Amino acid sequence: xxxxxxxxxxxxxxxxxxxxxxxxxxxxxxxxxxxxxxxxxxxxxxxxxxxxxxxxxxxxxxxxxxxxxxxxxxxxxxxxxxxxxxxxxxxxxxxxxxxxxxxxxxxxxxxxxxxxxxxxxxxxxxxxxxxxxxxxxxxxxxxxxxxxxxxxxxxxxxxxxxxxxxxxxxxxxxxxxxxxxxxxxxxxxxxxxxxxxxxxxxxxxxxxxxxxxxxxxxxx
Length: 220
Prior knowledge:
The structure is a single chain. The protein is of the alpha/beta class. It is 43% helix and 22% strand. The chain has helices spanning 19-28, 33-43, 48-60, 64-71, 78-92, 99-108, 122-132, 161-171, 187-192; strands at residues 4-8, 112-121, 136-145, 148-155, 176-181, 195-200, 215-218. It has a seven-stranded mixed beta sheet with strand order 4-3-2-1-5-6-7, sandwiched between helices. The chain is globular and about 50 Å long. The model has no long low-confidence stretch (mean pLDDT 95).
């Protein structure tokens, strides 16, 4: 049995990408100009819709930009999204690797169980995990009805990775827990870890993590 458990985030950690948003855009391109326009209104910082939703999100502790964006891929069949995820991984993500993080993972691969844990959606995380030989992966899951996406999530991993990891640690004995992430919602998971590698964009970003022990990787 591996002596260490390594839990690695996906978005802006393993790749320079918010894979949920980038994947939705990838799916909609050439499919629906109307949905693509709505998507841009939801996620572009210049958009008044984005600004209003951002304010509401802070008040209600929700992410309506993400929730409404996911509804734009409602009606797409699971198989269509899976094929799109394979192309997205091969064409889009392959050019956005954070090589420093991949180098860190290589250091652990011989005596560790490495899990990709992401709140991004299942088809994308599945392709990334398969393409990089992670031992396991866990992701948010799209709800489906008769094989088609409803635009809702049946499981959302945001802020809940620590619960998943706690379950693993209870069932298996590891000498060490390593966490690799840039995600602020992973702070509870980072506090559980014996060692953490935190991806930040600048020295200023370290302030959020001042109460945890971590190695920092600056990737602008």
